[in-house]
Write a structure and sequence with these properties.
The structure holds two protein chains of two kinds.
Chain A (H helix, E strand, L loop, with lengths): L3 H15 L9 H4 E6 L10 E7 L2 E8 L7 H5 L7 H5 L7 H16 L5 H29 L4 H21 L8 E2 L2 E2 L7 H24 L2 H7 L7 H7 L4 H4 L7 H4 L20 H25 L19 E9 L2 E9 L5 E7 L1 H5 L2 H6 L7 H7 L4 H5 L1
Antiparallel strand pairs in A: 1-2, 2-3, 4-5, 6-7, 7-8
Chain B lengths: L1 H13 L1 H4 L16 H13 L4 E7 L2 E6 L4 H12 L3 E10 L4 E9 L10 E9 L4 E3 L9 H11 L2 E3 L29
Parallel strand pairs in B: 2-5, 6-7
Antiparallel strand pairs in B: 1-2, 3-4, 4-5
Helix pairs in contact in B: 1-3
The chains are: A alpha+beta, B alpha/beta.
Chain lengths: ~400, ~190
């Protein structure tokens, strides 16, 4: 039985014998192996990327998102400004207050309204707490994929504290639908300030323990330091955002650059590092969490004791025709909404510019040339949330 | 390079109050006299591309430039090298069936120049709806690669010069019109 393979193989042998060689020479193409990472692989989330490896080194990478694309932008065109809120937070339920924050800001600009002062403070507190929830969840996953199971358990446990606070504040565990155009849905419960302060104080102590067990762990440092270097120039050119950008030495935080609501009254520092590696990208969110505790304390301190938390709107508000682009700093960086209104109760076009979609451009850039074993530490340090990127 | 530019624009600023009210073609922009950066940006752009652009001041820190597709590369290049807008935050296409056109807006922002980093500059261009083709800004802004690919599949705008006008987020077997066009309807809605 002669198959095509056999004859091909025989042809090759013939060729090599003519050249006076005894074995067939391997071409560089033969050495490459294609691997498909995801979408079912537990390490990538709902995201697939194809890589080619030459021995231990990655030589090709092609991201293929879209496994959780739900057409959020199209859905927005069929619902009015208020109805859009619950489905818009689905792309990133762990950070649902921030993803509806910039939407509310943009709609408020179109409606020409301003949120009452107490509402602005509660909004900012909810968004800071929610950012902690998201960052802890991300840290837990990062920990477990580098084989550090304690770092999976601890943040998962501490995350519940903030979820409890948010449940008391909003009435839901993760999908809050709390920010609405005009303010927040309901006022903070009695005793919230004391409870929040107590949890934040406890959490700050825990952060020191995180640093000891995780960030100062020699194994973790070995796997992340000098891995996946994204220089400052590349970070700027690729337009990455959030912790990925700040880990490359760019001091850019929307809360500082373009303060929204009451952030211009808050004193805080933009956290950044200059080492440009995976360690920096893992450490900047940690620094952000610490700074966030500081911000929450100031917000609680300055918050007016009483007052309205939202402006009552008519049931089906109509925006002025025009466009609005608003952004906030979310757990994954800048989160912008571009809303075009034609004066009807429904938006004409909604574009969501999310941090994850922007950061994934850095993945092929970082993976090509690095070792296969470094892939998890590079991929997760990009702070990528597939569902948000797909929208 | 960037810093010298900044100095130039600061010099312009001093006598900008009278100049900024000069109308370009058809629109007199209202610019807050306190926002010096916007003023100098307005002057710089208008003096360079008098007939090629229409610059509109929308809101504080939000400006929009309307350009023809044939001029977009030149203007984007100027914005990047001379003014310092170094990346695009988003690229969004909008379908207007009444005008038979598709508008594509690049939201540009700067990381490297601090004084213009709060400004979002919307670079807008329009193309014919039936034969939607635009030059790609990929040679100038590396950050638009995936955004343009998304615009291609969602609105059917072909970007000339982009290496991969291909499916990105939609299912592999997608066989309908681009879904963000207005004539694509969600079932039952």
């Amino acid at each position: 039985m002669t198959t095509k393979f056999d004859s091909e193989f025989e042809k090759k042998i013939e060729e090599t014998t003519k050249l006076g060689l005894s074995i067939a020479k391997e071409s560089s193409e033969d050495r490459l192996m294609t691997l498909s990472v995801g979408p079912q692989h537990p390490g990538s989330g709902h995201f697939r990327f194809t890589i080619k490896v030459d021995g231990d080194y990655i030589v090709y990478c092609d991201p293929d998102p879209g496994y959780v694309h739900r057409g959020e932008e199209k859905m927005c065109e069929y619902r009015n400004f208020i109805q859009n809120i619950p489905h818009l937070e689905r792309p990133v339920i762990h950070d649902s207050t921030n993803i509806t924050y910039s939407y509310s800001l943009a709609v408020e600009e179109l409606l020409g309204i301003e949120v009452p002062r107490r509402g602005q403070f509660i909004r900012a507190i909810a968004s800071e707490l929610n950012r902690q929830v998201y960052t802890l969840y991300w840290l837990a996953i990062y920990g477990i994929f580098l084989g550090h199971s304690t770092m999976f358990m601890w943040p998962s446990g501490d995350r519940e504290l903030f979820i409890d606070l948010l449940t008391a504040l909003t009435g839901a565990r993760v999908t809050h639908a709390y920010n609405i155009p005009g303010g927040v849905r309901n006022d903070a419960p009695e005793g919230f300030k004391e409870k929040c302060l107590q949890y934040v104080n406890y959490f700050e102590k825990r952060l020191r323990e995180y640093e000891d067990i995780f960030y100062n762990n020699p194994l973790f440092r070995q796997r992340t330091e000098n891995v996946g270097i994204l220089t400052k120039e590349d970070a700027i050119n690729l337009g990455v955002t959030g912790s990925v950008l700040r880990a490359s030495g760019v001091q850019y935080d929307i809360r500082k650059v373009e303060p929204y609501d009451i952030y211009n009254e808050i004193d805080f520092k933009v956290q950044y590092m200059k080492t440009c590696d995976s360690f920096a990208r893992a450490y900047v969110p940690f620094l952000d969490m610490r700074e966030s505790c500081h911000i929450i304390r100031q917000l609680l301190d300055k918050m007016p004791e009483s007052g309205d938390v939202r402006l009552k709107l008519q049931s089906n508000p109509k925006g002025s025709s025009g466009e609005s682009y608003k952004r906030v700093e979310s757990g994954r960086g800048a989160l912008g909404y571009y809303i075009i209104s034609d004066g009807s109760p429904r938006p004409y076009r909604v574009k969501i510019s999310v941090g994850s979609f922007r950061n994934i451009l850095a993945l092929p850039h970082l993976l090509i040339g690095s070792k296969l074993g470094d892939m998890p530490s590079i991929y997760w340090a990009l702070n990528y949330w597939p569902v948000e990127a797909d929208r | 390079m960037i810093s010298t530019n900044h100095n130039d624009s600061a010099k312009d600023d001093k006598n900008s109050d009278s100049l900024s009210l000069k109308s370009n073609d058809n629109e007199i922009p209202f610019i807050d006299p306190n926002s010096k950066t916007e003023n100098s940006l307005y002057l710089q752009m208008n003096s360079k591309f008098q007939n090629k652009i229409r610059l509109v001041y929308l809101k504080p820190r939000r400006m929009k430039i309307y350009v023809e597709p044939k001029n977009i590369l030149e203007i984007a290049n100027f914005l990047k090298t001379n003014i310092g807008f170094d990346h695009a935050e988003s690229v969004s296409g909008t379908d207007y069936p009444e005008d038979n056109s598709i508008e594509v807006v690049y939201h540009l922002n700067s990381y490297s120049r601090e004084e213009i980093s709060p400004i979002i500059l919307a670079l807008s261009t329009k193309t014919d709806r039936d034969e939607a083709r635009l030059p790609s800004l990929l040679p100038i802004f590396k950050s638009v690669e995936y955004h343009e690919r998304e615009t291609f599949e969602m609105l059917g705008v072909y970007f000339e010069g982009h290496p991969r006008n291909e499916r990105f987020l939609l299912p592999e077997d997608w066989a309908d019109i681009p879904p963000l066009r207005k004539d694509f309807r969600i079932k039952g809605r």
